[in-house]
Structure formats: structure tokens, C-alpha cells
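ingest -> validate -> predict -> emit
validate: passed (alphabet ok, no gaps, 559 aa)
predict: started
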Amino acid sequence: MMSLALAVLAWAVNGVLLAPIFFAVLIGVRRLSWIPAPWAALAAGSGVAGCALVVFWAYFLSPALGVFLSVALVSGSAGLCWRSLRGSRPQPGGPGRSEVAPVVLLACGAGLFYLGALYLCPAPQAYRAFSDRAANRFISGLPSDNTIPFVLADSVYSGSCSRVLFGDWLTSDRPPLQSGWSLITRPVTDALGLEPALSAGAAGIWMQVLWVAACYGLLRTIGLRPAGGAAAAGALTFTGFFLLNTLYVWPKLGAGALVCGAFCLVLLEPPGDPAVQRRRFALAGLWAGLGWMAHGGVAFALLGLAPWAVSALIRRRAGPWVLAAAVFVLVCLPWSAFQRFYAPPGNRLVKWHLAGQVAVDSRGTWQTIREAYSRVGLRGALGNRLANLKTVVDGAWPDPRHPAADPGRERADEFFFLVRATGLWSAGAAALVAAACLRRGRESLRAVRGVGLWSAATFAAWIALMFEARSALVHQGSYTLPIALLCLAAAGLRLLGKVAFAGVAAAQAAFFAFVWLPPATGFGSPGNPAALAALVLGAAVPAAFILRDLAGWEDPANP
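emit:
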């Protein structure tokens, strides 16, 4: 029980410290009428992410400068929020408060719910630390990737940022955004006596729940009204993909959320005014750059934008794209310089995924890729792609001869394989999306088509570029893809009608409880009353939004 109390305390303290920055950015966002209201929450979250990146570089230059900037950001933002509460109101026409409150409440509920699930089962002594528990509670033996952001943050915080992260991994092999995110709160959490690794993990949870803001914005853009969007985003809380990747705090989920926002902002929200278009493309370039600085896996999703960029170039309308690219480069340039001059070469993951070269060697990226393809030939390369296509639908599918499901095997399947990661949401929902959206007008159909085409382009880039056979696993791709597919499925059901949505949401919640709440190998049976209380309180938040939507409290005429 004490471990849970400390984890919830660290999570709450980090939330309180990050909240002033979030709401201070939101004050500015609400004055900008060109930012669509459904994306206001992600815009505010990206403001925290931008501050995190600046804070990281401040610590890298001087720990004293980093501490000063961290404290100044939190205290200055708190002062700005206090003055705003007492002073003038935001200008009319900006993103409304009603579009942000559901996202904030759902993010808080998801964090508490997931922490309850994490601590529901007693852990063996070897897994008592937060990072070890997260790496073994649901699937035994996940690697130590969830500790990398903390290790990097701890090194720059102590003023001893070496070129070697640990083992044969370099500090330049993993982007720094989540490390900077935890460094914002580090001076205060250290002063409060919170364990640094636990606090960093708790801060990482807040970064990963950016998925709530991305899903809400995407669902609203597809055509759901505010109550329906909040209900669908809440229902997606009961999905193993979001549970595990929120707690196992590698920065892939936060990265995917930011890039989803970048895509929707420029391609699904028709601006009309050229000035508005330029501003949105610039903001999208910022979000894409921050996503890249969180995790390089979003590269597949960025490559998925190529058809739109090429089309704009052909039609001689590439100006906004050039602006977005310039902002992206400016965000990423310091890290590129770090990789090239401080801890070169920083290309291990690229060589791993695109050429199958796992062991460290001295060859350059292009040389490694050329030699890898020369080794396997055209036949081998095509065979690997076919194996990757099969991997997407892999897993232990239900067998009528053996109906008893194994929760542990099911969890692993949902973690590794794309189709299985969507849970019950994909059961017939994808086929209903287009027909359902036709009932809501052309704009919804346009948005669904856009998300579908981008997902297809991202998928094609992923399958085409992953070198090794059976390497097209969810965690080795862009998390924009499962986020988009889950949102399409949930939106399709909700647009089809409340009954269909409620039925699948209830079935998914029951399936989630059966699969994800039982213990993994080595853990005791569920029985922590405090964790159960956290679980129930956290689940009550999305449940309340779902019931609110079903009851039609927002708009009785809402179908």
C-alpha cells in the first residue's frame, strides 16, 4: 500500500507542478481563434513539451541554469494563471473552456485508473521499483527502455552528461523530450524528498496521457460532438494499448499524440484564410518536431504525409509546407548537432530497423543499408515484407476447440500485433465508419477519408522500410497508427448510434478487465484495497462521460 501511496503522491505532485505551465499556455491559446477548439488541450500540452525541450538544453549547458529555469517556469506560470483568474477574460472566439475540461478530467482519471491497475497485484521484491513493476506487471520481462529518459535526465541534472548512456547505448540514440519533461519538476520533487526515478516515471505518465487530448481532437474532427467525443475518448481508456504504454513510460505514446495533432491541424481542418493556414502549418511543424524529439518512431507517420506534400508541390502551393518544415528543422537542429558533434553517430536505431544491424559497428547509415539489401537480394527483401504483412494480424486468435483464453498471451498479442492492439473496437467498426459518417455530412466523410489515407500511407511506409522479417511490431512503428485506428473505430460506432457504441464499449471494458487486471508471472493475486479504490475512482471519470453522452445531457437532440 505504501508503494501505491508514494506513486500516487509523485504523480499528483508532478501534475500540480506541470499544471501551471499547461494552463498558462492555454490562456494564450484561448486568445488565438485560428486554433480549433478541439485541439486547444493538445496545444497547451505541446506548450509544456516545448518548455521541456528548452529546459533540457538549459540543464545540458549548466545544471544551475536548468534549476533556475525550471523554478522560474513553474512559479511564473502559476503567477500568470493567478492574475488571469483575477483579471480580464480571454477574447471571445478562441478555443472554449468546455473543450478542454473533458480532456483534463479524462487524463486525470486515466492516470489514477492505470496506477490502480499497476498496483492491484502484489509484486515480488525484484519488481518493487516503479520502472520494474511497469515492465513486468502486465507482460513479464519487458526491457529497461522505460528507464532511458530518467537516466539521461539524471546525467544532465548532475552536470555529468556522458556520451555513453549505458552498455553500448549512446546518449544520442534516444531523443531528449521526456527527459526535459521530468527535469521541469525535478528541483521541487527533490526538495520534497521524492525518489528521483519514481518522480520521473510519474512525470512521464503525464506526458503519455497526451493521447487523451489527441484522441479527443481527432474524434471531434471526424464529426463527433463534444459529449460524444469525450465519451469515445473515455471509452478508449479501457484499452490495453493505452494502459501499458502510459505506464511503461517510454515516450512513444506522447510522440504519437503530438504528430496526430500535427496531421489533423493542417489537413483535416480547412482554414479558408491563407494567414490562418500559414499559422496552422507552423504550429503543425512545431508539434511534429516535438514528436520527433520525443521518439524517432514517428518518422513513419511523417513519411505518410508525403502524398499531400507532393500534391501541394505539384499544384505550386508548397509555401505552407516549407514553413512547417522550417519550424520542424529549427526544433530538431540542436539535437542533430548533439548527435553529430557531442555523441556521434546517433544512428543505431536507424541501422537496426532499416538494415537489421543490431550490434554496434563503425559503418555509416547508407553503407549499412546498401550492404544489408545486397546481402538478402530482391527475393529476400520481398519475403521479409510479406512476413511483416502477416505479422500485423498475428497472435493467438480464438480457437473454438480451445475456448479458454490466456490473459497473459492476450496481453502480449495486444502489445506486439497491430490488429490485436485495437481490441474489440475493430470488430466490425471499421467497415461502418464511412456509412456512419455519410449521415453526418461531407466534412465528416472528408475527415474520415483523410485519416484513413494517412494511416494507409503510414502503414505502407512502415512495412516497406522495416528490414527484418516479422519486425512490423507495434512498438517498432509509429504510435500514430494505433491511435488513429482506435479513434476511427470508436467514432464509427458512435456515429452509427449510441446503442452500438454503448454495446461495444461495455464489451471492451469487460474484456479489458478479464485480460489486463489479472497478475503476470510472479505477481500475487489482486487484493490491494487502496489500488482497487484508485481503480474504481479513476474508472468513474470515463464512465461518467459515457453515461452523460448516453443520457443526452449535453443536447437531447444529439443522436
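DSSP finds 25 helices and two strands in the chain.
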